Amino acid sequence: MSSEEKKKETSKDTDFSLSNNSSKLIYNEGSITRKVKRVLVTGGCGFIGSHLIDKLMEKGYDVLCVDNLFSGTKENIMKWFGKPRFEFVRHDITQPLFVEVDEIYHLACPASPVFYQNNPIKTIKTCVIGTMNMLGLAKRVNARILLASTSEVYGDPDIHPQKETYWGHVNPIGIRSCYDEGKRMAETLMFDYHRFNGVNIAVARIFNTYGPRMLENDGRVGEAVTIYGDGSQSRSFCYIDDQVRGLISLMESDQTGPINIGNPEEYTIKQLAVAIQKLVKQKFPNASPPD
């Protein structure tokens, strides 16, 4: 192969994804002089991520959705496929990603016990290595990055509601710790990159969020609502539109956080099940899932 042919072959490789498990370089020729803000959403095929993409697209941004589809589904973002301002890349963020963006919403991580307890090592790697990769990207391209952290960093709290200054009551070796401690480590990385590398960050601690695109076994299909545990555990519940509005507002502010985004009022899981029962006008047994 001549030297000229080698140059042509190399130039082809700069704009294409090598594989699902390798680093990716995605170059947009017009990205350097672009006038429209380009936004990266990791975990964009998930529940919160897909609703966030809906709002960002409505606001007129160029949106790049990155997801490995471990817990998310393309059906959540299918309506944007083929649109000129939208791009989807299947990629695992534990591998580096090279793109040109202005903002990064870092949501990628299994957020349900069903997923993160089935693969705790993958959950920790996504929280830690994935966050390091996204912070490295933010540093390289001078992008503001928002981490979707969680109220789980407070562990089993002694105070209700929790203020951002509360350090939590945590168990670092429990079966849920892969997620809780993974997010705590992700927050540590965010603030260290901010302090030592000048990365423009924001940290949102997301409380329980509900709305369309959640699991279908939530009472709408006429089946029993599954209660995990005895139902006495309390949670605060925030509607998805309010959650997305909070995330965008934080990104557009000059705040680093951490900022709690959720409902200050708490309800037990049993109270939630009863409310669903009344809404769908159907009775179902109050049972925990089988072991």
Give a verbal description of the structure.
- The chain is α/β, with parallel strands linked by helices.
- It has a domain at 35-209 and 239-263: Rossmann fold, CATH 3.40.50.
- The protein contains seven helices and 13 strands.
- The strands form four sheets. A seven-stranded parallel β-sheet has the order 4-3-2-6-7-8-12, sandwiched between helices.
- Helix 5 (177-197) links the parallel strand 7 (144-150) and strand 8 (201-206).
- It starts with a helix and ends in an 11-residue tail after the last helix.
- This is UDP-glucuronic acid decarboxylase 1.
- It is a single-pass type II membrane protein.
- Its main location: Golgi.
- It catalyses: UDP-alpha-D-glucuronate + H(+) = UDP-alpha-D-xylose + CO2.
